[in-house]
Amino acid sequence: xxxxxxxxxGIAAYKSLELTRLFIKGGHEVQVVMTAGAKEFIQxxxxxxxxxxxxxxxxxDQNQEAGMGHIELARWPDxxxxxxxxxxxxxxxxxxxxDDLLTTxxxxxxxxxxxxxxxxxxxxxxxxxxxxxxVLTQRGFEVLxxxxxxxxxxxxxxxxxxxxQDIFHKTLENLEKHAKNNQAWLNLAAFWAGKSILITAGxxxxxxxxxxxxxxxxxxxxxxxxxxxxxxLGAKVTLIAGPVHLPTPKSVMRLDVESAEQMFNAVQAHYxxxxxxxxxxxxxxxxxxxxxxxxxxxxxxxxxxTLELVKNPDIVAWVASQENKPFVVGFAAxxxxxxxxxxxxxxxxxxxxxxxxxxxxxxxxxLLGFNQDSNALTLITKDRHLALPESAKSxxxxxxxxxxxxxxxxxxx
Length: 413
Ligand code: PMT
Description:
Layout: E1 2-7, H1 15-25, E2 29-34, H2 36-39, H3 44-51, H4 62-67, H5 70-75, E3 79-85, H6 87-95, H7 101-107, E4 113-117, H8 121-125, H9 127-138, E5 142-143, E6 147-150, E7 156-160, H10 164-179, H11 183-192, E8 196-201, E9 206-207, E10 213-214, H12 221-232, E11 236-241, E12 252-256, H13 260-270, E13 276-279, E14 286-288, E15 309-311, H14 315-320, E16 327-334, H15 338-348, E17 353-358, E18 360-361, E19 367-368, E20 374-375, E21 378-380, E22 385-387, E23 391-392, H16 393-412
Parallel strand pairs: 1-2, 1-3, 3-4, 4-5, 8-11, 8-13, 11-12, 13-16, 16-17
Antiparallel strand pairs: 6-7, 9-10, 14-15, 17-21, 18-19, 20-23, 21-22
This protein binds ligand PMT.
Residues 202, 218-222, 260, 279-283, 285, 312, 314-316, 330-333, 345, 357, 359, 369-371 line the site of ligand PMT.
């Protein structure tokens, strides 16, 4: 997603560096705009280094305007975030002024705008500021409540800028809310209404003894995100979850399992009459041949032990081999040769579609795929290929369901 991050004058301006980093890490494109006041607190170069784009700060700079004029810039983002938003900026926005780049952009845009106010506690509680906030809220601006605590001026009270993590999550929530109000969402909801989707998510745990198991790092977030978005679009969703710590999305029927064999039994009991089966679970390929009933004891005279493993059923391949099978979507979690291995699984397991994702550690040390809030899927069918840029798992889920709807419509013609 494209985010225009506007920074206004205030001691909290330095916190917006962390906010920029979070947006970039989450796979978003960020254009920073600074007011003259903001530049008194922090150098534009710091934002440029993090966002990878020169900061915009002037309405009248020919060179800046030559790249992208201010009207074009007002149309560019999916969302405008003003953090920190000073008392002066709140007042100017309320009046509809257009005396610098930021206020002009706000007047010239129809994109959602989120404000993260930051100021002295008395300035915040002043009737003039509160009236400005009330008017802006009424006009559709989302104004975050400032945090409470010790302030830079030494006073204690409400007026601190909310933490970057909180602004980041609020921005994502708002992006999703606005995505759901547009025509594309309504068209997608018309497609999915009443369709049945079976989804597996999370890891499986394969018992060694009553207290130990073989597992993996899947958190279930990817599969749960698909279940949640599909249910919001009106699909009837059955979610078979391995051992995860996630709440059940609204209107989703959830069945909890632990091992691959239990997941297989649950899928066998539910795969019929489904339109789509999505296998997002990280199913263990092997289980312990003979789990023992009592806790295994260390053998004092031995420095090693051997566990015999046997193959688990391949659940997604089994569904794909059934006569009246649903449309079958697998996932491929790979640390290398991602697309080639995914392509191979698509063919070998006879799937209709596969979602490839790189897992493990990126070159910069960041963990990928497993237990992350964002992901970057490549959606592959026998004749289509779509690489999604990194974004929140809920947005990946939305793009996946959109791609899937096109594929199903195409195949039913
Ligand atoms: O849960 P998260 O923390 O959000 O992480 C998401 C994820 C990385 C787990 C997810 O995006 C993902 O890639 N899931 C599939 C992981 C996996 O097991 O991939 P695989 O390449 O080993 O398996 C290929 C396909 O076969 C998968 O659809 C898998 O569900 C299925 N499979 C595998 C083995 C088996 N015995 N039965 C299966 O059905």
